[in-house]
Design a protein that fits this description.
Elements lengths: L3 E4 L2 H12 L4 E3 L6 E5 L3 H11 L8 E3 L15 H10 L4 E6 L14 E5 L4 H10 L3 E2 L14 H8 L5 E4 L10 E4 L6 E4 L5 H8 L3 E2 L23 E5 L4 H13 L4 E5 L1 H7 L4 E3 L4 H18 L2 E5 L7 H13 L1
Helix pairs in contact: 1-4, 9-10
């Protein structure tokens, strides 16, 4: 199969629509990461996503819709706090899980009775979703367990020859996957942390819980159960307070002839004295936006990436640290 990368315009959107309605899959940009899209009503198409990615079949998908889509056709009940949260944060990097009407393929939720729905804010994603006019099931557009893609080239590197089309919308601005929020109970509950933080949700909804997976329990969100975000090289992760040990390991490996790179924020980079540095920025939003890009960059040049966790650990950094630990821990 020949994989094309096309900028988003009327011609490429017509091609994307033809592929989706013909039971195929395409990659498209969002503000968080690139997604691998299929018609959520088409079981064979949804199942092909799992096959293309090598994704476990008990790891549910998120349904993406445009901002004018009536989600009441997909879910059975929307609590009042969810309406307030939608008004505050959507379109944007927030996925909300509801009780499903079971109108889309059961393969989307892996046989579960809930449905995760997201309304991305990326202009290209909105154009694609409006053009197709269907609920779109989409996980990240990469091989399962590998670093999530934030550019069209990242998608191509993983899925060349496996999908026909990648819609190129530039580099994703957010950089880590959406916050996933369980809206099936009396109080919202964070299933996966992201750019919309627990405190931000609680400020609108009044309160917000945080979920911990129990043994044997069916997951309602991707990104909880399995290894994710891993580069194709060895990794090591050090706490901020243990950064001197990271610098020492870097020097040891460098002296041994290992192609070693340090990945850290700008402040640690300045302090380290290391020659090869993957600097993912200074602020929490810069770090989130650059995390996957730097992991992808690093795996191209390094045999070993030594990561140092940023000093800040709250807010958006909860989601960043979740990804960093899964990638390098």
């Amino acid at each position: 199969m020949n994989t094309e990368i096309l900028t988003i315009d009327d011609k490429s959107l017509m091609l994307a629509e033809k592929i989706i309605k013909g039971g195929g899959v395409v990659a498209f940009p969002t503000e968080t990461v690139y997604g691998l899209a299929a018609n959520a009503y088409d079981t064979a198409a949804v199942e092909s996503i799992f096959a293309i990615k090598g994704r476990p079949n008990d790891n549910p998908l998120i349904v993406h819709v445009h901002e004018e889509y009536d989600i009441s056709s997909l879910v059975s009940y929307i609590p009042e706090y969810a309406k307030l949260l939608a008004k505050a944060f959507l379109p944007g990097p927030l996925t909300m899980v509801y009780k499903s009407r079971c109108t889309v393929s059961t393969a989307v939720s892996c046989g579960g009775d809930t449905l995760a729905i997201r309304i991305p804010s990326h202009e290209g994603a909105q154009r694609f979703l409006k053009h197709v006019g269907l609920p779109i099931a989409a996980p990240s557009a990469n091989v399962s367990k590998h670093v999530s893609p934030v550019t069209a080239i990242h998608v191509f590197d993983d899925l060349n020859g496996k999908i026909p089309l990648i819609l190129d919308g530039g580099k994703c601005s957010g950089g880590i996957e959406s916050t996933v929020l369980d809206c099936t109970g009396e109080v919202p509950c964070v299933l996966r942390s992201g750019l919309v933080t627990r405190d931000m949700i609680a400020a609108v909804a009044g309160s917000c819980d945080e979920y911990v997976l129990k043994d044997g329990e069916r997951v309602r969100s991707p990104g909880i159960k399995y290894k994710h975000y891993s580069p194709k090289c060895q990794t090591a992760l050090f706490d901020y307070d243990d950064r001197q040990s990271a610098f020492s390991l870097y020097k040891e490996k460098e002296n041994a002839g290992v192609k070693v790179w340090l990945m850290c924020d700008s402040g640690v980079a300045d302090e380290s004295g290391c020659a090869n540095v993957l600097d993912f920025g200074e602020t929490e939003y810069e770090i989130a936006a650059n995390l996957y890009d730097k992991l992808r960059e690093g795996e191209q040049v390094a045999e070993l990436i030594i990561a140092v966790a940023p000093k800040k650990q709250d807010g958006v950094m909860v989601g960043v640290m979740n990804r960093l630990k899964k990638a390098c821990g």
